[in-house]
Specification:
Elements: H1 3-8, E1 13-15, H2 18-21, E2 26-28, E3 34-36, H3 45-55, H4 65-93, H5 96-111, H6 119-129
Length: about 130
């Protein structure tokens, strides 16, 4: 794929003021896609929202927006608490060997959101940066 085509892959063209040009408010599929809207008349805004959500891989099925956000906030709070505990253990007691466990708890909390990082990945990162027990 050429560099120009690679750049266009992540582009959406938006034409505003469809009300002034007498154009139809719509999404025109193509490379890149084109969205015609009228921001002044609030026409086509929902088309744009849906298009952007689809581009980002958003799927609202299964959980309501508030439930998903609450779940994410809870996971982030658990991750923050684990990091703070690990920092306290390390700074107050010099217990670097216990930091790995707190980082694992943090990673597990964040994986509730992303699901992308395994404990083996975390251990690999820890041991690549310093050696425990020397």
């Amino acid at each position: 794929m050429s560099d120009k085509m690679t750049l266009l892959h992540n582009v959406t063209i938006i034409h505003n003021k469809a009300d002034l040009s007498c154009q139809t408010v719509e999404i025109v599929e193509g490379e890149p896609p084109l969205i015609r809207l009228s921001a002044k008349n609030n026409q086509g805004i929902e088309l744009l929202r849906q298009h952007l959500k689809a581009c980002m891989g958003y799927s609202g099925a299964g959980e309501g927006g508030f439930t998903a956000r609450r779940r994410h906030l809870d996971a982030l709070n658990k991750a923050k608490q684990a990091l703070q505990t690990g920092q306290q253990q390390l700074l107050s007691y010099g217990a670097g060997e216990l930091l790995a466990e707190d980082l694992r708890h943090c990673q597990n909390a964040l994986s509730e959101i992303t699901g992308d990082f395994s404990s083996d990945d975390l251990l690999g990162e820890i041991f690549s940066n310093f050696c425990i027990g020397k």
